[in-house]
Amino acid sequence: MILFFGTRPGKPETKHLFNCACPYCQQHGTLTAVTQKNYFHIFWIKPFKISSTTTIECSHCKRGYYENEFTEEMNRELSNTNNQL
Ligand SMILES: [Zn+2]
């Protein structure tokens, strides 16, 4: 019997943070958050999420932010599901 198991990356989710200013260049609406979720799966069993990484990038100054650098404003925008693409 062969077991197929391992991890695989999920589809990245992209979200625009319209009401958020970039802490670096102070431009509004230039930030995009990308969430990459990794799933663990065994054969036919439904995969479950093992990790999720979100990074935010500014299209104006090209600066990237990791989760530990997110501002309160960014986190608020991220939890706002109306911005989902
Ligand atoms: Zn910026």
Describe what you observe in this structure:
It is a single chain. By secondary structure, this protein is mainly β. It has one domain. The protein is built from one helix and five strands. The termini are far apart. The structure holds zinc ion (ZN). Zinc ion (ZN) binds next to loops. Zinc ion binds at residues 22, 24-25, 27, 30, 58, 60-61, 63.
Give the domain tally. Answer: 1
The share of residues in extended strands comes to: 35-45%
The backbone outline, from C-alpha atoms, is elongated
Radius of gyration: 16 Å
How is the main sheet built? 5 strands, antiparallel
So how many helices?
1
Which tags fit this structure?
elongated, 85 residues, 5-stranded antiparallel beta sheet, binds zinc ion, mainly beta
Write a brief structural summary:
Helix content is 8%, strand content 41%.
Set out the fold topology.
Elements: E1 5-9, E2 13-17, E3 31-42, E4 48-58, E5 64-65, H1 72-78
Antiparallel strand pairs: 1-3, 2-3, 3-4, 4-5
Bound molecules: zinc ion.
